[in-house]
Each structure stands twice: as structure tokens, then as C-alpha cells.
Amino acid sequence: MEKSKEKVSLNRDLGLWSALSLVIGTIIGVGIFVRQAAVINDAGSAKAALLAWLAGGLLTLAAGLTIAEVASQIPSTGGLYAYMEEMYNKFWGFLSGWVQIIVYGPAMIAALGSYLSVLVSDFFHIPAIWNIPIALGTVFLVGILNIFPNRYGASFAIITTICKLVPVIAIIVFGLFFGHADALSQSVKGLHTTAGGFGVAMLGTLFAFDGWILVANLGGEVKNPQKTLPQAISIGIIAVLGIYLLVSYGVLKSIGAQKVHDLGTAAIPYIAQSDFGVIGGKILSIGIIISIVGCMNGKIMTFPRIMYAMAEEKQLPFSKQLAYLNQKTRTPIVSIIAVLFIASMMICFVNADRLSELCIFTIYCFYVMAFIGIFLLRKRNPSTKRAFSVPLFPFTPIVAILGSLFVIISEIFSDPIGVICSLAIVALGIPVYYYEVIHKNK
């Protein structure tokens, strides 16, 4: 057993296009299709809404560029978990990984599966009683795909990313060239008592950009990760920022801010059907379904790598099994199954979307620590030649830190109970750490 384990390692064959597709595909889920009205409602005007998308994208870009330098110096499987362990210690690394593999990752997969099942049921007119089986079946099928060599999951990411961009491009092109509404000067009437303000609007866009860091979990499977990971993260975020701005402007140009407010989450489906007819609405629905499946694939491909990396360090119960790599596929099959099992339980028994929201607070706390870590790495290794250096240092990481602190403070004020629950999830990992890492290694 030990002999075969020494021979098997993760397959380092993911290139720039695969990594880039994972960044774009994991970020663009359903948010861009359903959050247009929410951002405009909070911002109060079309111009402010576009500025909110821009500000959220620039903050995300600052975060991505900062992590890109960290990734170029720590190109390890596990992403944020590996960075926290290297920059601080095993304790902080463990807690960041614990939150991601036990709750955050599975909850995001489960929430995507649940939302997808509703769309599929509506599209094919299937009774709602089948929603849970559809969600479980989708998670299961995407999970099977990722048990095969990672090139299959990567190829699927490329295909779904291309497919999901088709309806997005259609909305952009039609809005830019055929829309007649005044896209920039409109304000939304009657929102002075309910609008959350520019800060809340920007917070909503930050959540729509989330997922950019997950490709870093595949550090041990990316070709030349010191260069490829920074390129994929930075180019991917810039591409998504451009897409989000163009979609928002295209929507505003098509029907205007007031109509977006009136329609709510139905704004983009309304545009698709009014501009392209019933067929257009169907194509948009298919595009959103593909978008969610692609986003799910990225998360199923990346989160189990954190579990595998932690198991490799013997930090989890059943670490020997969770660290198993299949000799033929060279994928962490047991870790994939474990994450999918947790996600499946969440689909059946809890509100997975709410669970993923609960972890936002602690995830952004770890983000802040990771961004501060770039200063620690530069201080520890002043003469090290870096494959990638964050531009405009130290301004860029400071912007990333301030952006994350904005999310943290907003969560404390808007959802104090959720913050307490989030901290409780972290606290549950502390006895596991002391038993698995400290006690067993005495």
C-alpha cells in the first residue's frame, strides 16, 4: 500500500486555458442573471449601479492580484488552506480548510444543485416533488465526471464557459446596438425608504464575483503554477469584470433602470423573451442551467482538493482514506465522494444557501489574513525572485484588505446571528485540530 502511494501523485496537466475557464466558470453562476435589480435598487440609479459593479470588480481584482503573488510563491494544492499554513501556522491553515470542506464548499455545491433543480423543473414542467432527486442526480453526475482524470473536468469547464457566454453575449450585443433606453441618466423612483445605498449595492456585487480564488486549490495540478495561476486569476477577474459591466449596461440600455426595478429577478428573462421571442426565453433558461452546472463543476473540482491536501498532512479523521489517489485517474476519489456526500445531506435536510451565507464572514476573515500575508512573505524572503509581483505594491493589497474589511463589518451589522453561527462553525474545528494534529502526533 505504501509503495503504491509513493508512486501516485496528482496529475500536473492543467494549462492556462483550463485554469482560466475554471476562474471564469466558477465566478459566473447565476448572480449576473438575477442580481441586476437588487444592485440597482440599492444603488438608486443606473449610473450608481454601474459604478457599484465597477467598484466590486476592482476590489476583487485587487484581491486576485494580491493572491496571485502569494500563489506564485506557494504553488501548492489546497489554495487558501496552503497559504494560511505556510504564512502563519498549521492551526490557522487547518481552520481555514475546515470551514471550506465541512460547510462552505458543500453548501455552495448543494445550493447550486437546489437552484438548478427548480430551473430544470420549470423548464420541463416537472412536479416540484422531483426537485431533490434532480439536485442529487446533477451533483452525482458532475461528481462522477470529476472522478475521471482532471482533464475531463477541465474540458467540461471550457465547454460550459463557452456555452454560458452565448446568452450573455446576446444580451450585451442586443442592448448595445438595439436598445433605446437611456442607460445612464435614469434613477429609480420610490426607493428612498428601501434602498440600501451604494455600499450595500457594492457588497452584492462582491458576492457575485466570489469564487475567483478556487482555482488556486489546484496548484499541484497546474502546469508551471508560478506563472499560470497568477495569469488565470488576474485575466479571469478582468474578463468577468468586463462581462458584468457590459451585461449591466446592456440591460439598462434595453429596458432602463425603472423597468429593471419593476421586474426584479425577471428582468433578464423579460429581455430575452421580448427581444428574441419564446425561443429566446428558452435559450436563456438553457444558458442559465449550463452556467450553474459549469459553476458546480468548478466547485466540485476544487473543494475536494483542500480535503485531500489536509488529509495528506494527516489533519483529518480517516486521513489515510481521504488522501487516497486512484492510480489510473490520479484524482482524490475518496475526498470527492466525501464532499459530495456532505453536499447531498445538505440538499436533503438543510437550507444550503443560508449555510453558505453563514460562512462568508469567516472566509473574508481568512482573506484578510492572506492579504496581510503578502507583507509577511516579502519580509521573510526579501531577496527571493518572484515569478509574479503584485502591481502597485503596497496600494493593491491595502485595497484588497480594506475591501474585505468592508464585507466583514457589513456582515457584523447586517447579520450578527449569522456571524456568531459562522464563528461557531470555526470553533467546532478546534477540538478536531487538537485531537488529529496535536494529540495523534505526540
Describe the structure.
It is a single chain. 76% of the residues lie in helices and 0% in strands. It is built from 18 helices and no strands. The chain has helices spanning 2-7, 16-27, 31-34, 36-43, 46-73, 80-87, 90-124, 131-147, 150-178, 198-208, 225-263, 267-312, 319-322, 333-349, 352-358, 360-380, 395-414, 416-439. The longest helix has 46 residues, at 267-312. The radius of gyration is 21 Å and the shape is globular.
Q: Which terms summarize this structure?
A:
mainly alpha; globular; disordered N terminus; 442 residues; Amino acid/polyamine transporter I
Topology:
Layout: H1 2-7, H2 16-27, H3 31-34, H4 36-43, H5 46-73, H6 80-87, H7 90-124, H8 131-147, H9 150-178, H10 198-208, H11 225-263, H12 267-312, H13 319-322, H14 333-349, H15 352-358, H16 360-380, H17 395-414, H18 416-439
Quick recap of the structure?
It is built from 18 helices and no strands. It is mainly alpha-helical and 442 residues long.
Which H/E pattern describes the elements? HHHHHHHHHHHHHHHHHH
Which stretches are low in confidence, meaning pLDDT under 50 for 5 or more residues running?
1-5
The helix content, as a percent range, equals over 70%
Task: Calculate Rg over CA atoms.
Answer: 21 Å
Just give the CATH class.
Answer: Mainly Alpha
CATH architecture: Up-down Bundle
Q: Biggest sheet, open or closed, and with what strands and sense? A: none
Q: Compute the separation of the termini in Å.
A: 24 Å
Number of helices: 18
The helix-and-strand class reads mainly alpha
Total domain modules:
1
The shape, in one word, is globular
Query: What fraction of the residues are assigned to beta strands by DSSP?
Result: under 5%
What fold name stands as the CATH topology?
Answer: Amino acid/polyamine transporter I
